[in-house]
Amino acid sequence: MELIGDDHELYDVLRRPAQPQYDHVRPEAIARCRTAEDVAEALAYAGSRSLPVTPRGGGHCFAGRSSTTGLLLDLSPMAAVSVEGGLATIGAGARLAEVYRGLHEFGLTIPAGCGPTVGIVGLTLGGGLGLLGRRYGLTCDRLLAATVVLADGNVVVCDDDRDPELFWALRGAGGGQFGVVTSLLFAAVPSPAATRFRITWPRDRAADMIDAWQQWAPDAPDDITASLTVTADRVEVFGASLAAFDPGPFADGEVDVRDDLSWPDLKRSLSEGGSDERILQSKSEFVRTALPRATIDELLGSGCELNFTPMGGAYNRVPVDATAFAHRGERFLLEHTGPDGDAVRRSWSVAHPHASGRVYPNFPDPALPDWPTAYHGPNYNRLLSIKQKYDPTNTFHFPQSLGGPR
Ligand SMILES: Cc1cc2nc3c(=O)[nH]c(=O)nc-3n(C[C@H](O)[C@H](O)[C@H](O)COP(=O)(O)OP(=O)(O)OC[C@H]3O[C@@H](n4cnc5c(N)ncnc54)[C@H](O)[C@@H]3O)c2cc1C
Fold it and tell me: Which family is annotated (predicted)?
């Protein structure tokens, strides 16, 4: 373990969080960890000084949970990606662009998210939605094993046979609660050639397009993932298709299709639109039934950007108690984003009566009143007992974490 100390200049360059709201939360020290043993040493160091401790992967947590005034575990030196017999071992410091690049060399990939600098562990522990998800499930649905350093410094490899309850909890409850993951083993899938599509209309067509999208995208064939975004000047349906692309109910827009892209090229082509910019304010909720037209009209008056992500497909074919991810019956995820927090809250309140009350653990919302139900649904009590077993002293904690704040 290498201790960097509170050298803020270096910190700015090395490990600034992706969310600007948390730039001011400075760690007392940063432990650069190259191995699981380094992590155990860092945990002992924090314990001996009564410092709060938190791991950081890609630093993208919307609620700043990988920021601390105590000891920050920087896992970026552990970013190796290796493949053997269709199984991918990925170090905790890897970000999605490195994962896709590393696996593509072997003709493989995993279903995972779009932001190229999102960390693989943070994404996986909260579920992992992405363009291959309707075909292959969440990122965590492809997880076969994880190496974890527990609060007492013990290193365990968990899977369906070894520490199965811990392995269950790591698949979807959200990061930073049970231990520090140092590597993940995935069942990879073939890296496909695919079609990237973008269909755009002026904003005054947004209500019609949302209406058509919500009837179609969650039930589309598994090979098609079509998201919808409404911005200040336009509405856009975009995504990927593993089969020949048919624009279906959207043929009257301005259609931009690129066929036969390699998977990394397709990912790059979609992030060219700027999907990895630093988001200022965001609230979201899952939706199980179509939004009424009057609600759509009201949402469009809120002044926020609206992002609709389809669920269904393989996401929803996994039983709710098979992993900790409790949101297996949802049709889509609706996100409200923008620089004005009041506008974001107003927009969320308009949709809320028609939403399911469930919230994606990877899009945490500190203002939720009943967060145990929102994030964990019927899996909450089982998660509490696993937390009690694996982190009885609540070393890994934050507001809304399973052990509660200390
Ligand atoms: C621009 C952007 C694009 C996104 N795109 C997608 C997307 O396409 N699909 C999707 O599903 N989500 C997406 N997300 C949400 C993303 O999944 C979450 O923000 C996720 O938690 C980020 O993980 P991270 O490692 O980058 O963040 P971090 O802030 O580093 O970590 C998130 C949480 O996990 C914990 N953690 C990190 N590393 C470890 C570890 N090794 N062991 C234990 N706990 C750990 C942290 O302590 C923190 O609590 C996006 C977010 C942003 C900001």
Answer: Belongs to the oxygen-dependent FAD-linked oxidoreductase family.
Could you tell me if the CB of 397 is within 6 A of ligand 1? no
Give buried/exposed letters for 316-336 (b at 16+ CB in 10 A, else e): bebeeeebbbbbbebbbbbbb
pLDDT in tens, 1-24: 788 766 656 565 556 677 777 888
Q: Exposure of 65 by Cβ count < 10 A (0-12 exposed, 13-18 middle, 19+ buried)?
A: buried
What ligand 1 atom has the least distance to the C-alpha of 17? 29
Kindly give the distance from the C-alpha atom of residue 293 to the centroid of ligand 1, in angstroms, as a whole number. Answer: 33
- The number of CA neighbours under 13 Å toward the Cβ of 133 is 27
Q: Is 282 in the pocket of ligand 1 (CB under 6 A)?
A: no
66 CB under 6 A from ligand 1?
A: yes
State pLDDT tens for residues 208-231: 999 999 999 999 999 999 999 999
Token pair in block for residue 171: 């698949």
Question: Candidates 43, 90, 96, 118: which one to mutate for ligand 1, based on the most atoms within 8 Å of Cβ?
Answer: 118
Between the CA of 113 and the centroid of ligand 1 the distance, in Å, is: 10
CATH numbers and ranges of domains, the chain: 2-74 (3.30.43.10), 81-190 (3.30.465.10), 193-373 (3.40.462.20)
Ligand 1 touching residue 403 (CB < 6 A): no
Dump pLDDT digits (tens) for 230-242.
Answer: 999 999 999 999 9
